[in-house]
Amino acid sequence: MPRAYQKCSGTAYWSGRIPNCTDLGNAIRLIAFRIEESKPVETISFGKSSVDREYFYGVVTGGGAYGPGICEKVVGMSARGDLIVERLPLRDDRSGTKRSGSVDYALTGDGVYRAYGYADSNRSEGPEAFFELRGDALKELSRNQLNEHLRAMSPENFAKMEHARCKVARRAELLPEIQAEVTEFAADGERLEVTTINVDDQLQLSRLTVTRHKSCGHFSEISVNDLDELIANLSAPLGVCTYCEAHAAKTRAAQEALERLQGTASEKNLPPLSGSMRQIKWALEIRHGFRDKNPGSPLLKRATTAKYWIEHRDSLQS
Ligand SMILES: [Zn+2]
Q1: How far is the CA of 251 from the centre of ligand 1 (A)?
Q2: Distance from the alpha carbon of residue 174 to the mean position of ligand 1, in angstroms
Q3: pTM, full prediction
Q4: Is the dihedral of CA 17, 23, 28, 33 positive or negative?
């Protein structure tokens, strides 16, 4: 991140430290490394595989478990940030079962190449690697070096991808800050949870979604453009929770239906039944059917629990 980098270099600069032996040692090593680096390399090894200026040699190890690997030429980057690659001519010298042997990928001149899926040893696969061929020089590329190449190959897409990455990083950085602020706005018994935030092209907060966990146990979602809008939204009268209200209405309707059923029963001189609402409703239906067939049965007055009617429904209905 550019900001962090500036901060680091700023600190080092202002500390005014005098170079010591370690610094000098490091400087010498760095110079030695630079000299080493500028010498053209003949081959580079990637685990059990290697590359020279003409071929990438991939071998199969572990009885066919690892390798031979894939080598491709990198020619650019898509707008989504994926590498655009070209396949290379392949010579396959593996056994019939492909459990041993090797393959050669012919490099196609100057450019950047990617290798992956190659055998690092007899027991593992190596990490994705990049290298560059330029004239006589063969050089393994670090991530940063690869990025410089990609930036040159696909400047527009690279900039887009970099900007998208910046936005993702900015969102991750902003989320805890926004959450801390939003927490302060919660009323008693409530909890406010920031679920998503978006940033605009200037990396400023552009939209946030907050889940409001209400004191009744239900929750609602609030989507707003900024914190002021959120405060305004939270300050508005809460009103009745629609879920609570719907639940209450359902309970009321069931209670009324039950009362109607019990009422019909008492009109016919039958006692009300005890039990849960659902049990009573069902038991009344069973008793109703039983009464039609056995109008004079003493059971009609004696059995006053819903449980009885439900338990004996099979024998009562037959
Ligand atoms: Zn509620």
Answers
A1: 14
A2: 30
A3: 0.57
A4: negative
